[in-house]
Amino acid sequence: MKTKKINWVSVGFSLASIHYGLGFLVGTGESIFTQGVKGILYPFSAALGVLSLAIISPFYLKLKKPIWELMGQQYGTSVKRTVAFLSGSWMFGVIASQILGGGWALSIFGFNRYLSMILIATLIYFLSRLNTSKLSKMFFYMLMFSSVTLFIIFLRNGISFAIPSMGMFFDSLQTVTWRDFFGVILSTILVTFIGMDFHQFIVRSKNTKQAVYGTIFGGGILLVLTFVLLSIITGAMSSHLIGVITDPKQVVPSILQVFGNNLFPGLGLIFSLPIIFVSIGSGSGVTRVLSRTISDVGLINNKKLDIKLITVVIGFLIALTGESIITLIVAFYAMYVASVFVPFVLYLIERSQKYNYQKKSILFSLWTGFLTAIAIFLFRRNEVDFILLYGFITSFLAFVLYELYGRSLHTYGKKS
């Protein structure tokens, strides 16, 4: 069935919407509160990531297939299934971040944090079983309602902080460390660069020019949203628009609540609840996509098992490990990138230079990078920079060693 082609405006909005959600809002609020202006590194990197798609858009638009199909054609079914699974694996981090952020947002009403997370996870599971477009639209409108409210707060309280806070952020870039670079910036840019969620909108562009314009427009939208959010949080902290909070993850929900109550007592509930529903809606949507991916690649073949339930339970357990929403999100970005980026670059080199790699070398590289990333997350989960850096190193070394080993066996066999 032919898919309707879209223009650069639709491409831009679609690309921006993938990054823009609860993690972008609540996670950035938490980071700004704890780190100051440097806390917008994640949304700023998301904007750069969408802008970087202008480089690879012609390639995606020409071949149209996702990278697991492309690499599968070159290296076989095992590589195809592995890349397809890894391309969805980072969504576990997204589900976990929705549970963590939604749980903390709900806790501003006096609920226990863990009970709130259990409730959010339960609602995500049951909603994931209802695949209706009407529900998706409802949660989208809730996100827009929260966004419009935040923009009104920006006009009333944050606009005077816009230029000074932007200047402070660009000054703070001098203090960016290599750990910030590998931990947040590179992970976020590269997950966008090779993420198939973004690829799907580029291949629907009318032509290459529309695709490139769309990526620039989408990146521009995220840049504007990033600095608006920075101004809102900075202004709220200066004008005491943040209520009594027990954790920085409550900053954005608290701003919405206080703003509503200042307008009229009781309106705080109406203004802050939508962002909680956004976490449930987004989490259920990602759960459906991830469970379908797991089913399609044959990772779980037992039809009696409830894949959606397993997915949400894993997401909940991951959420329990999260001390920071942004750290949790970028950790899973890093796991995916650490696993797939090196093999994907090798695939591009082979295409252009007509090299002939061994299929098992690529497969070995994929799994080595992934297992390294998983091990680092389990034992040093807050050190995201190590996930990406060591994942790159071990993935490349695994490829080189298996190539040398395989070719030496081949040479030895010929001599024999």
Question: Which properties best describe this structure?
Answer:
mainly alpha
Q: How many beta-strand segments?
A: 0
The residue-averaged pLDDT reads 87
Provide the β-strand percentage band: under 5%
- The computed structural class is mainly alpha
Order of helices and strands: HHHHHHHHHHHHHHHHHH
Approximate shape: globular
Describe the fold and architecture.
The protein is an all-alpha fold. Helices cover 81% and strands 0% of the residues. It has 18 helices and no strands. It has helices at 8-19, 22-35, 41-63, 67-75, 77-89, 91-106, 113-128, 133-158, 162-172, 178-194, 196-202, 208-238, 251-263, 267-296, 307-321, 325-353, 359-380, 384-415. Helix 6 (91-106) runs antiparallel to helix 14, helix 7 (113-128) crosses helix 14 (267-296) and helix 16 (325-353) packs parallel to helix 18. The longest helix is centred in the C-terminal third of the chain and has 32 residues, at 384-415. It starts with 7 loop residues before the first helix and ends with a helix. The model has no long low-confidence stretch (mean pLDDT 87).
